[in-house]
């Protein structure tokens, strides 16, 4: 079984690590892939660090031996549609679990070929809101993790840095210097 956790990771934060650790513990997949998105679809971001930087931050944050940080979306066509990543990974393992946060779940029915995705993966959702938010007007199956809500986001981290506020504890110590340099 392979678990896929994709994201912009702009930058990776402690919330991402908590999500990955809890999902790993719950499912114990044979492979757990962290996949930084080369060109995240549907995302308007004030600023995105280049792929190589985000990839190397992920390697430092997800250092445990059971995590594999993958550069596949750097090689696959742009934009980084998840269906393409899944189709590529299906060559290696057909039992794929796709891990997403509850905010992504809300818009999941707007993803490119989302119905195709659901035929190929089992969806695992990490809660992000105290009040459950289900996708609008569509119904599909997913497993929701029972886990603490983590109110940390990359957007907030970038904004804090711009305002000169600390992000210690929100971002892994190993990458904090580089992250501050990137987003100041
Ligand atoms: N605090 C969180 N709680 C639950 N899910 C999260 C959290 N942070 C990120 N995720 C999920 O992790 C995946 C990758 O997230 P992403 O890299 O976009 O981080 P983000 O904090 O949501 O970034 P941004 O603020 O730039 O949108 C997405 O599926 C997202 O829903
Ligand atoms: O395939 C899509 O249409 C699609 C639309 C939105 C998001 N995604 C993927 O979902 C993951 C989290 O996205 P994001 O924008 O919240 O960082 C990341 O791997 C994206 O490539 C994928």
TrEMBL record:
It comes from the Bacteria. Gene3D superfamilies: HUPs (3.40.50.620). GO terms for molecular function: ATP binding; nicotinate-nucleotide adenylyltransferase activity. GO terms for biological process: NAD+ biosynthetic process. Keywords: ATP-binding, NAD, Nucleotide-binding, Nucleotidyltransferase, Pyridine nucleotide biosynthesis, Transferase. Its EC number is 2.7.7.18. Residues 4-160 form the Cytidyltransferase-like domain. It catalyses: nicotinate beta-D-ribonucleotide + ATP + H(+) = deamido-NAD(+) + diphosphate. InterPro entries: Cyt_trans-like, NadD/NMNAT, Rossmann-like_a/b/a_fold. Pfam families: CTP_transf_like. It is an enzyme of class 2 (transferase). Pathway: Cofactor biosynthesis; NAD(+) biosynthesis; deamido-NAD(+) from nicotinate D-ribonucleotide: step 1/1. Belongs to the NadD family. Catalyzes the reversible adenylation of nicotinate mononucleotide (NaMN) to nicotinic acid adenine dinucleotide (NaAD). This is Probable nicotinate-nucleotide adenylyltransferase. It comes from Petrotoga sibirica. The gene is nadD.
């Amino acid at each position: 079984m392979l678990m896929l956790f994709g994201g912009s990771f702009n930058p990776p934060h402690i919330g991402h690590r908590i999500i990955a650790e809890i999902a790993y513990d719950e499912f114990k997949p044979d492979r757990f892939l962290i996949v930084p998105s080369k060109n995240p679809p549907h995302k308007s971001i004030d600023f995105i660090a280049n792929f190589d930087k985000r990839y190397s931050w992920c390697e430092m944050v997800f250092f445990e031996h059971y995590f594999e940080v993958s550069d596949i979306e750097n090689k696959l066509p742009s934009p980084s549609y998840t269906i393409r990543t899944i189709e590529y990974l299906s060559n290696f393992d057909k039992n794929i679990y796709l891990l997403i946060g509850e905010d992504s779940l809300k818009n999941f029915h707007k993803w490119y070929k989302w119905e195709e995705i659901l035929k190929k993966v089992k969806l695992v959702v990490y809660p992000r809101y105290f009040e459950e938010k289900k996708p609008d007007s569509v119904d599909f199956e997913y497993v929701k993790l029972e886990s603490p809500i983590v109110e940390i986001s990359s957007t907030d981290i970038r904004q804090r840095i711009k305002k000169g506020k600390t992000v210690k504890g929100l971002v892994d110590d190993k990458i904090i210097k580089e992250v501050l340099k990137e987003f100041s």
